[in-house]
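Why do we care about 3D structure at all? Because function follows from shape, and shape follows, mostly, from sequence. That is the central idea of this module. The next example makes it concrete: a single protein chain, its amino acid sequence, and then its structure expressed as tokens.
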Amino acid sequence: MIRLAGTLVSARNIDALDRRLIIKLSRDASEVSKSDGTTALLLSPGATAPDHCTAVAVTGHQCVPSRIAPYFELPSDCEYVADGDIIRLEPSKNRFRVLFRKSSAHNNFLVTEQCDNFCLMCSQPPKKVDDRWVLEDLFQTVQLIEPDTKAIGFTGGEPTMWGERFIDLITLCRERLPGTSVHVLSNGRRFSDPTFSKAWASISHRDLMIGIPVYSDLSTVHDFVVQADGAFDETVRGILNLKERRQRVEIRVVLHKQTFARLPQLARFIARNLLFVDHVAFMGLEITGFTRANLEQLWIDPVEYQRELYDAVTTLDDFGVPTSIYNLQLCLLDRRLWRYAVRSISDWKRDYFPACGNCAVRSDCGGVFVSAVYRHSKHIKAILQSGRSQ
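And the structure:
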């Protein structure tokens, strides 16, 4: 697990810095000198910061700060930060958060904690707060991301709660990062408004995908899972509006006790009514957020729903719908499903159990969420080279 936020070890000469700062890290002092305060020098071991730089040092580097420049020292377990990474500093609270890591394939940005769903298994429980500042910080962040970045994502809460302003952010991505793939997680309800879906399509991004959950072919089941009456109808209308405007849509299905039984029927519903979607992802449960509070309503060992999952996946595959399985360990999957499995768990919250140490397919398996310590399958075992489990 990688720690992305915490308390600064030390900070000097920051009396005037009482606001949040979005800072890009660089080892190039000349780049820092031209950055107008948006770039900080990441010091090498034993180096001294020039007076014109904001210096950011990591414990263990034994850096010598400038007597004049603001100086921030990150904890020793943040030694992974590197040239091109972006952090948010809150000097008044002595806090930091790593927002973007250039070397990571899992750069996803929280847009808001607000949401009009209240999903039983939400990993980021919604809050009724005015957090527009999070969105505004993202405008600064996108400006600092290297243009050669392959992919970024936006999540919530519900990002479309910010309406046109969120569309402005995705438009900035198109302009500032034209070669970067963008993935947005949304409950899809806002797109039931034809005006909003039209505005979304007008962004004209070359590589934009929106992931929308559909948890059942029955509206009652879907609405129960998301705890919002009428959500199923709005979500499906949103998908139809987006596809009418030739937007890329992914359907996401979280696998748990409330959804597994009707996976085959859901797959046939998609094949009959939403065959034009671009991808379907079946996703293992993350034991965090509301999931922990509702665990008894949600938990089912993945080995118990393999028949339903196999039926659903092969149905979609037969109809030509690109389909993947996320967040499930290979030792729990029907082997016929291995070719659909993706190493999807973000590196900063991925772990492996001791039993995985000598597994022959560990490099192909996505491991487990760190939160799996609260509940996990008893069937997780190493797979030996011979193909047997131990």
